Amino acid sequence: xxxxxxxxxxxxxxxxxxxxxxxxxxxxxxxxxxxxxxxxxxxxxxxxxxxxxxxxxxxxxxxxxxxxxxxxxxxxxxxxxxxxxxxxxxxxxxxxxxxxxxxxxxxxxxxxxxxxxxxxxxxxxxxxxxx
Length: 131
Hints:
The protein has 131 residues and is mostly helical. It has 2 domains: 1-47; 58-131, no CATH class. It has 5 helices and no strands. It has helices spanning 2-43, 51-58, 62-81, 83-93, 98-130. The model has no long low-confidence stretch (mean pLDDT 77).
């Protein structure tokens, strides 16, 4: 009987560890590919692709974008789940000074817009230089 309980738990743990190892190996392979591609691009400056490709592959701003998306989405989700709490959130937002709201919107615009532009601009500049 004890063996009947241990086998499924051991099987589940083995599957979890196998999946975890595959995920770590895939991340390591991506990092190696990024480094190899950076070396290739450094040796071949005549190619149009450059740093913006590497930044897109690495997705360095993912946590910051996730946080800002959560900040925008949370009041809506709360309103759907509990309309009373949602109403309080939006009523309290009216008490915030307009400059605070504007700065907050500008900061989120920078996270979503400018962080993407920093990856695209080098490609555009590189294309213009070639012409």
